[in-house]
Amino acid sequence: MNATALGWLLLAATATATASPGSSPEGKYIAKALPDGSIELRVTGSTDAPTDASPASLKLGPMLEAAAAKECPTGYDLTRDPTPSVRVESGKLIASLGGIARCKPPARR
Q: Has residue 2 been placed in a domain?
């Protein structure tokens, strides 16, 4: 894969456009508690690999925000990694994006 194609894949992986018709994006995340109380998150999504006739994209940003919301139901501050990791494997575009969520404390009553 040449540098230009990889650059477009990175852009597509962070875009908010939907995946191409006919492909069904899949996603999952992992969460790891850190000593300072924050949570390290990594979301991974996959969809059909792009072709000349069919581009591909994944909504990694919203996936990371959804993971943070699940881990921090009272709210969060989220810092994202600047660049996702992207690879094509067995006809699938697989991309991951990490970040750190700092959960907000529950509101006092």
A: no
Residue 6 domain-assigned?
A: no
Residues 4-56 have pLDDT tens digits of 344 444 444 443 333 333 344 668 999 999 999 999 999 999 999 988 888 88
What is the number of structural domains in the chain? 1
Global pTM value: 0.73
33-59 burial, b at 16+ Cβ within 10 Å, e below that, comes to eeeeebbebbbbbbbbbbeeeeebbbb
41 domain-assigned: yes
Name which of 89, 11, 79, 77 is nearest 46 in CA terms. 89
Q: Is residue 108 part of a domain?
A: no
CA distances in angstroms from 74 to 49, 86, 98, 104, listed in the order given: 37, 31, 21, 6
- Burial class, 80, CB count within 10 angstroms (exposed 0-12 / middle 13-18 / buried 19+): middle
